[in-house]
Please model this.
Amino acid sequence: MTALAALTERSLMSTLRDSGMIFEMLVPVGSLLGFTVALHGLIDTGPMSYIQYVLPAVVVQSMMLVALLTADRSARDHRYGFGERLRTLPITAAAPVSARMVATLVRATIPLSVAMIAGYTFGFRMAGGLGYALAFVLIALLLCLAVALGADALGSSTSIFEGTSQILLFPQLLLVLLSTGIAPGRNFPGWMRPYVRNQPVSQVAETLRGLATGHVAIGNLVTSLAWCAGMLLVFGAITLRVQRRTS
Amino acid sequence: MRRAMADVSPCRQSVCRQTLTRGHPVHGILTAVGQFAIEVSGLTKTFGGTTSALRGVSFSVPAGTVCALLGHNGAGKTTTINILSTLIRPSSGRALVAGYDVVRQPAQVRASIGMTGQIPALDQMLTGREHVVLFGRLRGLRRHQAKARADELIEQFGLVAAADRRVSTYSVGMRRRVDLASALVVPPKVLFLDEPTAGLDPRSRRDLWTLVSSLAQQGVTVLLTTQYLEEADVLSDSIVLIDHGQVIASGTADDLKRSVGPSYCHVTPANPAHLSRVAAAVAGLDGIAIDADTASVSVLARDGVATLGEVFRRVDALGIELADISLRKPSLDEAFLHLTAETVT
Model:
């Protein structure tokens, strides 16, 4: 426990000092401004205001970004041999990666709060009550954790440094922009709709949207949780392999 | 750095010596289990099924001594250290560190060792002080204990001025000091130093030698790797000469030198004309040879300094003025070349 606490503190200290933190805080504000100003009135979201519609997607995007930047941190440990040195210490093998995950979740609360504050100023409301709001936050963080686990494993096993997260930005962008989080499925060309509707960002954004209004479709909630659980399982297994790898 | 190393003794008094006398388990310096702190037998390591990094390495290091793994790049030094510090598993063979098996009891081994690598492994975003505190906490110290201990080490290692700057701004020498201080937060039973003086200036190197010697006096067993013969000669109680993944010789520096050949006593008269008088004076001793080029007489010094004394007394009795008299031992360089050449052929 001491090791986990000490390593988490260290992760937070070192992330407070790199530029990623500011980036993470600016992205939700920037996205929100971009989407609402540029697309305002262009996308028909029915009776729901566009800010109410799009904010969950901004939250999902922010969470994924925080998660992806974890790759740079694990790559940094990997590259400078710090991670290897930790393996000569009397701590559990899972402590370093667990600490990075806890630190990532702590970090995630900041852009999440920023997104909420920005959203509220633009007219977004949590209409479902405290329980739904709590579930909203938990699912956002769960998604962050699941993606972060994968990014961490990639960072720990790749020899590409600093740019690790940039490689991941492209698929992230595709997932966010080609999702029902930005616009309802009918706005996309027919051949693309099956992908757009079923991919994880769309599903999770829809769940968050539902939680914000207080009406969640159970099928959609299950799909979102399944995506998160699936990623946790797969990436968790990969991380375990990477951690145990002692050539 | 100078003061860093010179001031290591207070460290001993404050933490290590206390632990020596009280045997406080947290601080770790207890008498090693058995006579040897490191026992390695028949260690092999094959990478990717084909490349043999180690081909049956065996050696032992008595507790509280300094042992140097000496060899060229790629000889297998780092692989050996990595196996002993539980970073990689051997393909076969057995290794005990502080009495614990590196494969079956890695947790106990990790609790007994300290390590610094060829390249200091630091979190670049932390300051030197934060780094040392972190390692203290990872070794089980409480926050305030870790802080107090870090303050001590920062002072001892001459890092006070830079302690609150990020490690990424440090010079190589300073990074090495942070790395080493982190390894010593809780004094280990066995300390592994992989090329500890690579990239250091001569003075920092000497300071490190002083530190290593003082650690050994405190009962820490030190296994270091080096490519420098001088370093192995000055610093270590024993040397393990390793080449192409095999131990080709081991023993003290003197043992290795003797394996090349005996020592000779060289006598150079002030006046080259007296060469034959010198030769006559030493008549009866073994292995006399006159070297006209250097205008000296050499005598096999089977008894080392005693032979030199005998030669001097005889020459002096005849009143022959000397320019030089010296005992010449084979150098470790010669031993190294001699022994590594043997394995190649």
Q: What stands out?
A: The CA atoms of residues 33 and 172 of chain B lie 36 Å apart.
